[in-house]
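Quick one from the shared queue. A colleague (R.T.) flagged Phosphopeptide-binding protein as missing a structural entry in our internal table.

Convert sequence to structure tokens.
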Amino acid sequence: MLTFAILSAQCRAVSQATFERRYPHTWLVRELGPEDQPPPSFKTVFAGTSPGASSHTSVSRHRISSAMSGVSRQCELLPVIKRPESPWQDRILVGRALNSDIVLRDPSVSKVHAHISVQGASTAMIHARKSTNGTFLNDRPLEPFSDGVPLRSGDILRFGNIVCEFLLSADLYRLVTR
């Protein structure tokens, strides 16, 4: 798992150009909490019914990146990239299943919850799938199987109870090195 503390230590020795060459993709950043221990079963449950789950109303008012400071921040950094063995080369799958490109091991996340399509280094679209607990962009529910919605750096995504912030590589570098 790549954390803010690990990346911070790596970034202090490289320039932004070197960082962007090393990590030419976008990122999902999520805060880690005590409830991030995997439950004994990964059967999908309705949001808010899993132990320790909370209601996530108005989550877009809280930017994860705005609270990131110092190495004490417990954040997981998830690269928005394809796994080479993935059979769907046109999309980056987000879900609870271990064969997803971005794995979110939480019972509120469906096996295949959403997918991200990338057109170029800084253009990405989020596509909701038919998930039990929905996919939200800046507190707005996304319609399953729509054409997708463009993502901008700083957008807040919610997959079930998991809240992530979408960041461009350059923006992540600036956060890590401030």
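The domain at 4-33+60-177 is CATH 2.60.200.20 (Tumour Suppressor Smad4).
The chain has one domain: 4-33+60-177.
Added to the table.
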